[in-house]
Amino acid sequence: MPSPLFEVKLEPDPFLHRIVILAGVIAMVCGVLIIAEVQIDLAWRFVGGAIWILDCVFEMRSFSKGIRWLRQLTLDSAGGLRALDSAGNQVVLSLRSGSVVLPELAWLRVVDNENRKFTGLFARRRANHREWHRLQLLWRQARKAFGHPAGP
C-alpha cells in the first residue's frame, strides 16, 4: 500500500544569503592568494586566478539569482520538486548534483525546464520542526527521485 503524499515547503533566508555571499568573497580572495603563491610561471598564475575568480563569480551569481527568483521551494514524497517564483508562478524543477541536506541546513541546487540553474540555502530555524523533519525523511528516502516523474 503506497504511503500518502506529503510536501515540504521551504523559504530562503535573506540572512543566510548574505553569509553565503560573504563566504564566497572570502573564498575567492583566499583562492587568488593561494594561486599567487604557487611556484609556476606568472602567466599561468594569472590564468589560474582569472579562472578561479570567474568560477566564484558565476557560482555567487547563481546563488543571488536564486534568492531573488525563488519565493518558496516545495518537495513532495513522490519525488516532485517545484518552486513558487517571485511572480507567483509554479515552476517544475530538477535537483542538481551538489545538493545536500544536513541537520540544520540544506543547500539545494536546482534547474528548471529552460536549463536555468538556481541555488538556495535553507535553515531549520526558518522552517517549522515538522517541515524540517519531513525534509530529512524525504532526503534519506527519495532524493534520487526529485525532479523526475514518479514511477510505479
Characterization of the model:
The structure is a single chain. The chain starts with 6 loop residues before the first strand and ends in a 10-residue tail after the last helix. It contains three helices and seven strands. The protein has one domain. A hairpin with a 4-residue loop joins strand 2 and strand 3 (81-85). It has helices at 14-37, 42-69, 129-142; strands at residues 7-10, 70-76, 81-85, 90-95, 100-101, 105-112, 117-123. 43% of the residues lie in helices and 26% in strands. Helix 1 (14-37) runs antiparallel to helix 2. With 152 residues, it is α+β, with helices and mostly antiparallel strands. Strands 1, 2, 3, 4, 5, 6 and 7 form a seven-stranded antiparallel sheet that branches.
Average pLDDT figure: 83
Number of helices: 3
Q: How many β-strands, per DSSP?
A: 7
Structural class estimated from helices and strands: alpha+beta
Helix share of residues? Answer: 40-55%
Rg of Cα set: 18 Å
Concise structural overview:
With 152 residues, this protein is of the alpha+beta class. Helix content is 43%, strand content 26%. It has helices at 14-37, 42-69, 129-142; strands spanning 7-10, 70-76, 81-85, 90-95, 100-101, 105-112, 117-123.
List the helices and strands and how they pair.
Blueprint: E1 7-10, H1 14-37, H2 42-69, E2 70-76, E3 81-85, E4 90-95, E5 100-101, E6 105-112, E7 117-123, H3 129-142
Helix pairs in contact: 1-2
